[in-house]
Specification:
Layout lengths: L14 H10 L1 E5 L4 E4 L7 E6 L2 E6 L5 E7 L4 E2 L15 E4 L3 E6 L1 H10 L1 H27 L2 H16 L3 E2 L3 H8 L3 H13 L3 E4 L2 E4 L2 H8 L1
Antiparallel strand pairs: 1-8, 2-7, 3-6, 3-8, 4-5, 4-7, 9-11, 10-11
Helix pairs in contact: 2-3, 4-7, 5-6
C-alpha cells in the first residue's frame, strides 16, 4: 500500500502509528456519481484521493445543491471526518464526480492519532481551517459578486480542470455547482452565446472567446 505517498505528514508519525494506518486504511474504487457521504452524523473518516475527482456540496431546504469544494489527486478531504473536530458538525455531502480511487482512514483511528500526535493535530487544524476558508470565500462570492461574473469564473476553472475549452457539462450540473436554478444558468449561457463567448450544443458548452470571459471575471 502506497498511502505514505498521499499522507503529507507520514514521516512525522512513529513506526507504530504508520503501521496502524497501513493496516486499517482501505482503498476504495468508486464510480463517478457515487455518493460517499450523505451529510448525516455518521463519520466516514479521512479521505485521501489517489485518483479521480470528488465534490463536496451542501443542500438548501428546497433541495438545491451548491458545491463548496472539489478534491483532485493527492488532495485530502476532512469534511467526511468532521466528527473528530470538537463541537464542529458539517451537513456536507460528498460524491465522486469521476471514477476514483480513495483511501479512507477510519474516523476512530484518526481521532486517536489526533489525541496522541501533535503533528497530526496541527495538520488537522490547518486542514479544517482551509476547508472553512473555502466555504467563507464561496459565501462572499454569492453575496457580493454578480452571477455573470461567477459563471464566467466557473467556466474558466472548469476548462482548466478538464484541460479543454469544450466542456461536457449540462446546465443542470452547472446549476448544482453554483447553487442556483437551471433556468438561471440557461438564460445567462444564452446571453454569453449572444456575446460570442460560448457556443451551446446539447450537453456541451464550448468556450469560444476565453479572453472575453476573463475580462468579465476581472
Amino acid at each position: 500500500m502506497d498511502i505514505a505517498n498521499y499522507f503529507p505528514i507520514w514521516d512525522k508519525l512513529t513506526p507504530a502509528q504508520q503501521q496502524r494506518i497501513a493496516s486499517t486504511t482501505i482503498l476504495h474504487t468508486v464510480s463517478g456519481g457515487t455518493l460517499l457521504h450523505d451529510g448525516g452524523p455518521d463519520c466516514l473518516g479521512l479521505l485521501l484521493v489517489k485518483s479521480g475527482q470528488l465534490r463536496a456540496y451542501m443542500l438548501s431546504e428546497e433541495g438545491r445543491e451548491i458545491t463548496i469544494s472539489r478534491f483532485f489527486e493527492m488532495d485530502i478531504c476532512l469534511f467526511s471526518a468532521s466528527c473528530v473536530m470538537s463541537n464542529m458538525q458539517f451537513a456536507v455531502f460528498i460524491e465522486a464526480e469521476k471514477d476514483s480511487e480513495i483511501y479512507v482512514i477510519p474516523a476512530c483511528l484518526y481521532q486517536n492519532l489526533m489525541d496522541e500526535s501533535l503533528p497530526v493535530a496541527n495538520y488537522s487544524h490547518n486542514l479544517i481551517t482551509n476547508h472553512l476558508s473555502e466555504v467563507m470565500w464561496l459565501m462572499e462570492q454569492i453575496m457580493w459578486k454578480s452571477f455573470d461574473k461567477r459563471l464566467a469564473r466557473f467556466l474558466l476553472e472548469e476548462s482548466a480542470v478538464e484541460g479543454t475549452n469544450s466542456l461536457k457539462i449540462t446546465h443542470e450540473k452547472i446549476a448544482n455547482h453554483m447553487g442556483t436554478a437551471r433556468e438561471v444558468v440557461t438564460r445567462m449561457l444564452r446571453w454569453f452565446q449572444s456575446e460570442g463567448m460560448v457556443k451551446l450544443t446539447r450537453g456541451t458548452v464550448d468556450i469560444t472567446d476565453e479572453k472575453k470571459l476573463r475580462k468579465l471575471d476581472a
